[in-house]
Write a structure and sequence with these properties.
Blueprint: E1 4-7, E2 18-26, E3 29-40, H1 45-54, E4 58-63, E5 73-76
Antiparallel strand pairs: 1-5, 2-3, 2-4, 3-5
The protein binds zinc ion.
Zinc ion binds near residues 14, 40 and 43.
Length: about 90
């Protein structure tokens, strides 16, 4: 299992409140596969959604859990083969 950590191009010290999940279709479902998540503050929800749409993924805005993740952090699961539990 492989997870890639990356960051968006912006620099921001805002408090992360949202996890922008990126899904690709699988088995006929638009949200069939969770491919990546970007953690952002309220100001960067739209850029994060646009980023996933540009990559052909379907964005879904979820609430981020409490943590110290900086705005713009990306966790990318796309190399992983197994599905992870919710
Ligand atoms: Zn931000």
């Amino acid at each position: 299992m492989s997870i890639t950590f990356a960051t968006m191009s912006h620099h921001c010290t805002g408090t992360v409140t949202s996890a922008i999940e990126a899904y690709s279709p699988r088995d006929g479902l638009a949200h069939g596969s969770l491919d990546a998540t970007a953690y952002v503050c309220p100001n960067h929800v739209q850029p994060a959604r646009a980023m996933w749409e540009e990559q052909g993924l379907t964005p879904y805005t979820a609430k981020a859990g409490k943590g110290s993740t900086p705005c713009g952090s990306i966790t990318d699961f796309r190399e992983a083969t197994a599905s992870t539990e919710a």
